[in-house]
Amino acid sequence: MAAADLRALVTGASAGIGAAFARALRARGERLILVARRVDRLEALAAELGGSEYVAVVAADLAQPRAVAELAATLEARGLGVDTLVNNAGVGHTGRFVEEPEDRILAMLDLNVRATVLMTRRFVPGMVARKRGALINVVSTSAFQPVPYMSTYAASKSFLLSFTDGVAFELRGSGVRVQALCPGLTATEFQQVAGTDQVPFNKTTTQTPEAVVAESLAGLDRGKERIVTGWLNRATVAAQRLTPQSVSKYVAAKMFEPKP
Ligand SMILES: NC(=O)c1ccc[n+]([C@@H]2O[C@H](COP(=O)([O-])OP(=O)(O)OC[C@H]3O[C@@H](n4cnc5c(N)ncnc54)[C@H](OP(=O)(O)O)[C@@H]3O)[C@@H](O)[C@H]2O)c1
N or C end: fewer C-beta atoms under 10 angstroms in the chain? Predict the structure, then answer.
């Protein structure tokens, strides 16, 4: 592509952590590409952040098989390139695995895993060729252990952690910074979508999306390949390493077990 207008692309920018990334990156002077399904929300955020000169909006359902290829074609047609990629869009569900509808499981894996891998494959080679860029994959502290009643979600995030750590190693010295961002409980729409509203938000256990993003970007500046945000989450992940998995799984199960 000839002299593309290089920008930061944020998936899932219509809410929560993605919207916070959009605001923080724009505050750093980046021009943006915002992607999600709810285009009305993206347009409102684009207007807030300076309008179409600075912020492009692309509607996409990234769980669809052709979505990433179509998004790439749209960007090429509009002369837009990507030099920072934030793969943030993701969903989770709670419930007993054997009762989960197959189509819901597959849609989650297509979004959390397939789209993230394809977005990375599609946009990172250009960064490597230009010897500069950044990739942030939004993972989760649930990547560090099995989570009963969120079994598929936690497994999808374990995949993303392993994948991102591997790519980060491969790209050392390339000029492209890579980060696996692992937030814990964050006050967004995620819990409502996932059906985990039974885990109460409070100031000790819950971070704001803005705090998560500030830690991510500060870590990126320092070249940190893996960030667990918030002191409580860091302490929990450290404690998990010292705790038998039978215990940590039991604790997680008690948090998410469907109530009768
Ligand atoms: N909140 C937490 O406690 C927490 C903790 C750890 C990790 N995370 C991770 O953080 C990331 C962001 O979640 P959040 O907490 O900010 O949740 P959120 O407020 O529910 O936002 C999710 C975003 O993903 C987008 N999205 C969902 N399905 C999509 C699809 N099929 N195609 C394109 N975009 C889609 C949504 O936009 P549309 O609905 O408009 O498409 C929305 O912008 C996720 O990867 C999540 O796993 C969250």
Answer: C
Using most ligand atoms within 8 A of CB, pick from 186, 196, 208, 213 the residue to mutate for ligand 1. Answer: 186
* CA–CA gap between residue 60 and residue 47 (Å, rounded): 19
CA 149 to CA 134: how far, in whole Å? 33
Give the number of the atom of ligand 1 that is nearest the alpha carbon of residue 91.
47
Spatial separation of the C-alpha atoms in residues 246 and 177, rounded to whole Å: 36
Please write the tens of the pLDDT for every residue from 79-138: 999 999 999 999 999 999 999 999 999 999 999 999 999 999 999 999 999 999 999 999
Atom index in ligand 1 nearest the CA of residue 12 equals 43
What residue's CA is closest to ligand 1, atom 36? 12
* Range of the structural domain that residue 157 is part of: 5-256
> Can you name the residues that pair with 226 across neighbouring β-strands?
180
Q: What is the CATH number of the domain that holds 218?
A: 3.40.50.720
Burial class of residue 146 (count of CB atoms within 10 Å of its CB; 0-12, 13-18, 19+)? middle
Tokens 């392993």, located at residue: 162
CA distances from 122 to 68, 76, 82, 149 (A): 8, 12, 10, 33
Mean pLDDT of 195-209: 79
Q: Which two tokens stand for residue 21?
A: 């990334």
- Ligand 1 atom at minimal distance to the Cα of residue 11: 34
Strands of the 226-228 sheet, one edge to the other: 55-59, 32-36, 5-11, 80-87, 133-138, 176-182, 226-228
Distance (Å, whole) CA 68 – CA 88 = 14
Task: Look at the chain and report how many structural domains it folds into.
Answer: 1
The residues that are catalytic are 153
